[in-house]
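Workshop exercise sheet. Pairs work together: one partner reads the sequence aloud, the other fills in the structure field after running the prediction. Swap roles for the next sheet.
Pair: D.N. / O.F.
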Amino acid sequence: MTTDTTEQEPETREPFGGLGAAARNVFTAENSLLVTFLAIVLALVVGAVLMVVADTGGAMSKLGYFFASPGDFFSSAWHDISAGYSALFKGSIFDPSTVNGTPSQFFGPISNTLLNATPLIFGGLAVSIAFRGGLFNIGGQGQLIVGAILAGYVGFAWHLPGALHLIVAVLAGALGGAMYGALVGWLKAWRGAHEVIVTIMLNYVALYFLGYLLNVNGFHDPTKFGQAVSKPAAANARLPHLFGDSVATDIGLVIALAAAFAAAWFFNRSKLGFEVRALGINPRAARTAGIAIGRTQILTMALSGLLFGLVGVSQVLGTTNPNNSALYPDVDAGLGFNAITVALLGRNRPWGIVAAALLFGAFNAGASVMQASAGLPVDIVNVVEAVVVIFVAAPRLVQEIFRLRARRAAAATGGQA
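Structure field:
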């Protein structure tokens, strides 16, 4: 009795009621830069409304006599909105009160934005690479965790000289994510398993494996009694500060920007990048042109996993780590799923993803300041981010709200709508 080991014919039908086709439509040319900008504007308007509603002692308290004195309501509402967005700006970009302060105070807001944006750049690029190959990598959490495990382990268990320790730790994290992603590609290519289901299940495998490791002798930090924390990475295995010890941003930002440049080159200049794009556009045509579908799927998922592995590296070895470069249960911090929204907002293009990551990084950096100084809940920022994604994912809705089609039609007919 023989076993057929030949590559299976890739599935060309869209499972789950056309999930892949629906997702691809999100990244088409219809979702223009103008629509993306208007989606952000609409989200900020929604955020402004929430700021007014959230401050029950402000504008909302004036509703009882709105018709008697509407100016009181609008004046208080404007105060809530301006205070909220002003605090968001001060916490993420620049605070004028720090002009005469220390460098850490002056550059603190923008450095926090860059620090929050770094893992989002890696993650957004990871999602976009898989997606442009016709795959939906929703397993960023698992690949991130595996990358963090290997990077953290090399960081505290291996003893290497100088910068070599950091290089090996970074490569270990990237390799871990790549191998975990390649496993998904192999199951997709040779066994027909859908990547959405496989990656979701592998997320749980990685998550519970991390929980197991954090309680194992030799991995768990014995000085943290009762806490699920690993041993900290050695000092020379940590990502160094980019602008000095007083500023939080680390060298991971440089690696992320290099990854964006490499992704742009990959899709526009490399043979494999062309094959990935061809596979994502039309698998049948790609096969007819001689592209090895299974191999390309595996390599696509491996590259996507590699970038998610770098997210894990930045989380465990970067300056944002709250546990002194040690692994902890929440090391993924939801970045595996946030990366999907960044790729969506960035219109699946490397430099668009960088811009989207900076925007979301600014939101995350300024949210705590907004709560502290303006007394508004940080959940408002989460809602604004979600609304941005909703409007970007529904470009026709934005077009109808701003009557973009009517204006194009009027321009085409000489001003007659």
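Discussion prompt: Confidence is low (pLDDT under 50) at residues 1-31. What would you look at next?
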